[in-house]
Each structure stands twice: as structure tokens, then as C-alpha cells.
Write a structure and sequence with these properties.
Elements (H helix, E strand, L loop, with lengths): L4 H21 L3 E6 L5 E7 L2 E9 L5 E7 L4 E6 L7 E2 L2 E7 L4 E11 L5 E13 L5 E11 L5 E13 L7
Antiparallel strand pairs: 1-2, 3-4, 3-11, 4-5, 5-7, 6-8, 7-8, 8-9, 9-10, 10-11
Length: 171
Amino acid sequence: MLGTKSTRIGLIGLPFTTALVLFAVAAPTTQVAIDAGGHGNAAAKTIVGAWFSTVTPTLLPPFVGLGSFTADGGVINTTSLSLGSPLESPGHGQWIRTGRDTYDVTFFTVNADVAGTHILTSKVRGKLRLSADANEFTGVFQVDVFDPNGGLLVSDTGTIRSTRIEVEPLP
């Protein structure tokens, strides 16, 4: 375990933020079928779509992120923390539906120094609940940060709140 809270926060800052954002992005979305005329018809609740999230961990200040869930169970995310140093990859992982409006998500990020040397790996796991209108989701998560040899350095938990990104046509 690392010595100071400040050191622990520095090591988990990017991975943790990415993980939280990923959970926000993993929130269910409404998937709309498009008819031949290009108009939406039947809406169904699903996690598939793009999300803007606010992540609130216990060891770091809140941060924001963007995430996308694919129809085949993939999840991709990035956060405001991943734009800092050390360099952090986007989060990549999978999601599954666990109930009518609930989902489990797991994704990983990797961190590197400026020379590209692998310094950390983060695993984020979360539970998400889609709102009744399928335009928001909330959830809880845990992020585990590992050294390059797989040794656990630190863990944290927190919450996520996400809003679906909708098309906003120009006038």
C-alpha cells in the first residue's frame, strides 16, 4: 500500500476517473428503431448509446466523463482525469443486463509515463440503474488499481450519474 493519501490519489486519479465515467457511460439508453423515412418509431430501453457522466469517488474530487455502450455488449469511455498525467487509455470493457432496468459493467484502463512505459492498470466494476424514461442512469462502482506486475495498490468506491446524449439538430 502506498504511504500517503496524496500519493494514492495521484496513482488512482486517472484510472479511477475513467472507471467512473465508464460507469456513467454504461448507463442504459433508449434505442429507437428508424423506419424507411428516417423517423424514429418504437423505443425500447437499453444501455446502448452515448452518455455524459458525473463521477463522485471517495478519494478524489468529482469529475466528468463520456461513455458509449455498444449493442454487442462493449463499453468505451474516457474522463476528464484521463486527459492529465500520467497518460491513461480510454476504458474498454463489457456490460450485461441483469434485470429490467439494471446492468453490470466491467472495464479496464492502462496508464503510462511520457515514454510510454506501462505504470498502472485499473479495473472498474459497477452496477447501474436506468431511469423510468431511460434518459438517465445512476450507479455505484469500485475501481482497483494495480502495478505492472498485477499487485493491488489501492481501491476506491463511488457513485455515478449519467445523462443520455441526444441528437440536437441545427435549425
